[in-house]
Amino acid sequence: MRNLIISLCAVLFGLIGGGVLMAVTGHDPFEGYKFLFQGGLKNSQRLGDTLATGTPLIFTGLSVAFAFRTGLFNIGAAGQMLFGGFCATVIGLNVDTSRPLLLLMMIVAALLGGAVWAFIPGLLKARFNVHEVVSTIMMNWIAYWTIYYAVPAYLKAESVETESRLLPDKATLKSTFLSDMFGGSYINMGLYVAVIAVIIIAFIINKTTLGYELKAVGYNRHSAEYAGIKVNRSIITSMLISGALAGLGGMAQFAGNGANIQIGVLPTQGYDGIAVALLGANSPLGVLISALFFGLLYSGRGFMNAMTDIPPEIADSIIAIIIYFAATSVLMDRLITRIVNRRRAATGGAGTSGPVSGKENA
Amino acid sequence: MWTTIEQIFPYAIMFTIPLLITALGGLFSERSGVVNIGLEGLMVMGSFIGALTISKLQTAWPQHMVGAIWIGLLVALAAGVLFSLLHAFASVHLSANQVISGTAINMIAGAITVFLSRNITGSGNIRLTNGFQSFDVPWLSDIPILGPLLFTKTYWTTWLILAVVLISAWVLKKTPFGLRLRACGEYPQAAEAAGVNVRRMRYIGVMISGAFASLGGAILLVTIAGEFTGTVAGLGFLSLAALIFGQWRPLGILAATLFFGFASTVANVSQVIPALQDIPPIILKLFPYVITLIALVIFSKSSQAPKAAGEVFDSGKR
């Protein structure tokens, strides 16, 4: 409940911050927001685009949230996504078989690619106690440069130097059924996979021994070890699953929303995943909702930019402000505690103050 | 071979300087106990404010091209201090997770600078018509061997930053302020017991990192890039790597950034230099990151990292 209030407050502050930005630069915030939300929701096609834009964010958000639960900060979702997407693209361009089998192979490739990329920081953390934040940042740039040279060398398009060949339709997650249902939107089967992933991850976290162990390591590494949980193995497992999720996000992006992989960019969805996880309070359902919310901001901004002269980067700015407020949730936490205490005192709770929350961010 | 080296050297040094000053900023922050992965964003901010100021001033006073650049650097530095206050406030006063706050800094800088740039200039890029011109140091550039390597095609900013590094090394090592700052990063409770205002020191540390990283972004703009594009292509993260590789010491950072500067320059020019054509460029590009991972493993037992960096200061904890 408290988490929900904090997240809603962060969103509210983010929207206010965005409104102030619009006002300061001489635009009408109300008109801006009207077109921003219309752009993401106005008709079935725009709604479909919103869902599609949110799909990779669901994966990267889940990825970051899952690692968070084990007390790991996976800042490398971007690199894992890039490498997972690259592996899927390699299969998609080079293997020719029936569509279900091909897609299955691509999904496995994306899972493995992302997992491999996260395995290295996991291993370094477990074996040498190397901080995962630094090692995953390094892995991001290693992925960036690997893709930068591997794509032109092996998957180069005919005329364009900076992207791979287009995947054939059967090697993408495109679905005419979904597209028709949403009026020609680029929504695709990635969304199904994302929802399945949310359910599986929720099951793992809440209902399995593995999830229990991972959470125990996240709460207190030493007591988990004392209780007989193999901490090092848990760290590596958690990073593997986290990386695999990000890798799937790469497939959803490069072989679902798009149909090829570009060089020279670290996908923004990697860092946005941190915002998604934070806003969703690291719960799978929260991740799903906040990813779709960010998808809405991202898909509505084009329409807003067309109807007003507000630059599209307002969406990124709003998300950035939201993550800042989510990071400083202690502020809101204190505020809520104070309000609750005051109300208790006012209703005659005979001097019993509520539990003073000393919540620290993990 | 010798001509190749002579050609590469000035570029490598030019490329080293923004990394060096940014990593040095990160050093002050981490030594005071605040991890700052917002260096990338601070560089972007410096690059933006620098580009904006310089392009406006140069149009207003066409006769003072160089003066406008110096003012631009100063304004960028001041803007970096202000912007870093966001991170300082979150990590010192609000006990926020410093990594998340730093990530927020990166995201805010990347988004808001382009947003403002589009509003002010109508485009997401700001191009400078005039950057700094390089010059040969008189007398010194005539020294055989060393002259062509170190004293040709240099920039005033290079000498300035090298001086800043030496001063910083002295300040951190020899002055009471430096000792207090380092104490806040190692054992803040002890520092507090000795009468040091830990929160204030951490604010100062983060503000210095904001100033230096932002200056780094602006120097990158006026010497190498010549254009603000909304990103510094991971140089802030590379500086962070240099900070670790240099084991949180000013001269270590100098060595690490020189090393990275050379690696990057060699990678950039390897295609046009016959002696290097056989080395695949991917190896040179990956080099700094892989070597940092290896360094992290090697130093994992004897890391010189400030012990309390990244931890929320709790004055009651013992």
Automatic annotation (TrEMBL), chain A:
GO terms for molecular function: transmembrane transporter activity. GO terms for cellular component: plasma membrane. CDD domains: TM_PBP1_transp_TpRbsC_like. InterPro entries: ABC_transp_permease. It is a multi-pass membrane protein. It comes from the Bacteria. PANTHER family: ABC TRANSPORTER, PERMEASE PROTEIN (PTHR47089), GUANOSINE ABC TRANSPORTER PERMEASE PROTEIN NUPP (PTHR47089:SF1). This is ABC transporter permease.
Automatic annotation (TrEMBL), chain B:
Pfam families: BPD_transp_2. GO terms for cellular component: plasma membrane. It comes from Paenibacillus sacheonensis. GO terms for molecular function: transmembrane transporter activity. The keyword Transmembrane applies. Its main location: membrane. It is a multi-pass membrane protein. InterPro entries: ABC_transp_permease. This is ABC transporter permease. It is found in: Cell membrane. The chain crosses the membrane at residues 9-28, 34-54, 66-89, 154-172, 203-222, 228-246, 253-273, 279-299. It comes from the Bacteria. Keywords: Cell membrane, Membrane, Transmembrane, Transmembrane helix.
